[in-house]
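User: quick one
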Amino acid sequence: MMKQYSDLEFLRLSKWQRFLYRLAAFFCAIPRAIGHFFKNIGGYIKRAALAVINEFRDIGVTFAHGDWKTKTSYLVMGFGNLARGQILRGLLFLVFELVFIFYMILAGGYWLSMLPSLGKQGPVEGYDPVLDTYTTIYHDNSFKILLYGVLTIFFIVAFIYTWRLNVKQNKIMEQILKKGGKLKSDKDDLKSMVDEQFYKTLLALPLTGILIFTVLPIVFMILVAFTNYDGAHNGYQNNLFTWVGLDNFNTMFSWTSNSGGGSQSYSATFGEILSWTLIWAFLATFTNYFLGMFVAMMINKKGIRLKKMWRTILVLTIAIPQFISLLYVSKMFAKNGLINLTLLDWGWIKEPLPFWDDATWARVTVILINIWIGIPHLMLIATGILMNIPADLYESARIDGANAWQQYIKITLPYMLFITGPYLLTSFTGNMNNFNVIYLLTGGGPSNPKASGASGSVGYTDLLITWLFKITTGSDAKYYLASVVGIMVFVVVAVISLVVYNVLPSIKNEEDYQ
Amino acid sequence: MASVKLTNVKKIYDKNVVAVHDFNLEIKDKEFVVFVGPSGCGKSTTLRMIAGLEEISEGTVEIDGEVVNDLQPKDRGIAMVFQNYALYPHMSVYDNIAFSLRLKKTPEDVIYDKVTKAAEVLGITEYLMRKPRALSGGQRQRVAIGRAMVRDSKVFLMDEPLSNLDAKLRNQMRAEIILLRQKLDTTFIYVTHDQTEAMTLADRIVIMKDGFIMQVGTPDEVFEMPDNLFVAEFIGAPKMNIIKTELVLENGNYYVTPFGAKIPVDGDKGKALADRKVKPGPVLLGVRPEHINLAKAADHAIPCTLVVDEMMGSELHLHVDTEDGTRLIVRVPTLELDKEERKALTVGNKLHITFGGKAMHLFDPETEKNLLA
Amino acid sequence: MNKTEKRHMGMKALNRVSNGSIYILLILISVIWLIPFVFIVFQSFRVESTQQVGYVIPHQWGLQNYINLWNSDFKRWYLNTFIIALASAVLVTIIQLCMSYTLSRFRFKMRGPLMRFMLILGMFPGMLTMIILYRVLADIGLTQANAVPGLILVGFASSGMGYYVSKGFFDTIPKSLDEAARVDGATRLQVLYKIILPLAKPIVIYTVLTAFMGPWGDFVFARYVAMGTSAGYNVAVGMYSWLTADQIFGMYTTFCAGGVIVALPVTILFMCLQKYYVEGVTGGAVKG
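Assistant: Done. Structure below.
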């Protein structure tokens, strides 16, 4: 167990000691938190069970005490609303129920029943009586089964929720009527949609979009990690795919090299890519951060003229679409690109410089070019923050006898770090997933021969995200592996965010500097 | 023109944080009621519940006899002035004041009449074309009041309207609010943390602490007969001196014995004690600084040392330490002192103080309730 | 130089020295920043060869590359991208403003869980969802030649996740303005368009600008969706194909010309609205 400091003792520590102490405290707190969780798990379950029991009791009690309108509503959703004059709500309930029933009969039932197997009959050669030839006859479609199966489950959950809402509303309506109150009319409902319920109106479209185009695909892809969905099992045209349990995670994390990882195992390849991803994210974030801040301070220094012009020149890299600037620069550094050709012409070099052909050269060049792309952003942000640092802080520091460097270390930097703490975190995770810079510059290359057997032709500058992309392209795409990689990216990002959020003071004491 | 009635009103934030406990109050038509208390006491929350800006967790709010719990702010017939004025920055002063009328689709010439009339009353006619950002704090406050005036509302709510102004302007605006009230002749609910504002403006004061009402009464009542220690200390400046002491009963007469002196509780207070047959024992004795007198040495006078001497102009605030180190504040009108006496009041000098039974407030040290209330 | 002398050395002189070195650095930086863009312009006018060469100033100037562009599918790609950019500027802005305004202004039961949920969703790499989105789009026929509506649909449907920057801005508008307006008789809808939107002009412009600029650089998913059908390419996908190993010898200078044509309007637009972009970016970073 680590030593616990009191508040005053803590204040005697230096910056680094404080940081290390916080870090240590966080990790020491993990076992306790886990223990706490398991100790309370009984409580959680009990509370959840009680909540469920309460729901059921409420449903039962409402039925027992309800009038015939309420009782009918248990079968015919919205009947209570219709019978009591709330035509609009009633119709919505009723239509939803009808749609649900028809969907379940016509399609949902089938998708749901096929979900455990992901399809029974793949495509077969068969006789087509119409064309009078033998052709491939397609049957089940694993992809659609998985997709619509998940969608159906979403739908069922939504239905249960709506049904419960319907029961609750009946109960509330009865209570209001019993007290002699007046129910909301359709007109009131419509009015409240732009007033007290306006947030529902506003959120309806964005959330539907997110549900269908983000949540559903992510759930789907998480599930794919547990199947053998790949180019050879695409679920329809060639072979069905099916559930394989944790096999894919075993492949990814097995240490034996014969699992398809080339001369090294998959886990070794994964480890290599992950560590480069982290190094890249770290370097990309902090080079940009400090250099950007430096440039901003130069431009903002009193007495420097043409501030606007310098800024405008720098933001060119933001304005011009990255695919143009990055692709162009990538070609500029190529073996037969402008730089090498010029240097050869001038006789400065005999051989072209291996900007993209040597692992270390490529990694360094990528980081340097990323500075070119990234500094302007940081310059803008730093400018905004620097101008907000109260001048009296510097004045009092000067009276206290601090020189320019000390002022920077003691005031500017802490202030910047405090305010941009959350930004640094998002910037770090953003760089981990910075597909554009890597893919457009190097395409992940130069290729890594040790990982030749791993799916997706791994290169030395590949990030997890570009690897993921490469795995999913081509006819031998291994979607299940891509999915495992994707889940791992999530885990890494989530862990880093969790640690940083707990260690970084700026998120906890945000008000200190405001 | 309406009454406001709050019955068992509660505000519970999630995680069971209770901001307002069981608030009961009936505000009569055309009454000026001030909610006062330290920050976090729930006064603003209560006001915002009346306004409809905050959901009412429990209980009912009635305006003019109608329960308004489920009504939107705009349907409650209220007008409100906010602490930071809340003027719409992109609209001119004229448009700011006209905003609510336009929403009601009032004809433009009616709007013109109302806005110019309100501007005239508030003396902001020449600023009607300006944007709020071009106004001073006092002018902004007037615009905010003007915006509330044109609504012809039943209840006028004000949430710390003067706290963003400097001291001088605050005094001036306070007087203007009194005038405004005479002109508008409607029900006012006013929230402030400043007891002076409360005392000068209110017909009735509601003093709150930690979500509870500590006392409701006219300015006279809360000043003369505070229900409890909190109210006693909160109302009046400088604040009331509180002395731990004993109440003794000798021959049917009550005495208090602060710092070894023995001072009779005479007059109405003594009679009241006797009527209630209050048992002698430890009490908290409260004496306002203005009720303490400088005295010559005598057996009921308390010797003490002058530590700080604040000259306020018409009066002196003397901070004195008694022999056991208790700090007391004494307020002495400068007019009553001659040159010699004034000279004697130098820091470090010994002096004697005394006070009479009429000026005493006696509190139970356990419940902190007024023994006489 | 002894200590006293140093102490009395003119601040002005010191300043002049440091300012001088700053100017040198700034000029150096500006040159590095401008070089690639100047080069690309030069090379777009080069007609003597269509591949990479070891010099910058063309030996022979001409518009051949631009004529090549005109005769290629570039027109179609450009139009595709422009339509996508325009549509997303409208749709994405609406979605993001709805989202951020709501999360900034309303306090409802599910607000906290919703925001946490979206934070967690955002930790999944977006790339992961491409495969399925592609197959779904293929199912409803919005791929290949019909890639444009498909890209618009996907682009705006999940754009609600990017609400952070504009929410940060909305948070800085005092809530008492909403409350005053509601007391004055405005519905929530009226509060939005009479009070908040006029005050949120900078962030609206920022959102429109970023939503418009995004599609010009959209590459990965666009390539997925177009699936090798030129009619469904956007500029990024189309021009990328010119720099592949088998085309670069013939198309390098054409790429440069295309780059100029693509970058010019976007850059001019950006420069005009730079002020709002800076406001959004700094506000977003400070707010987190």
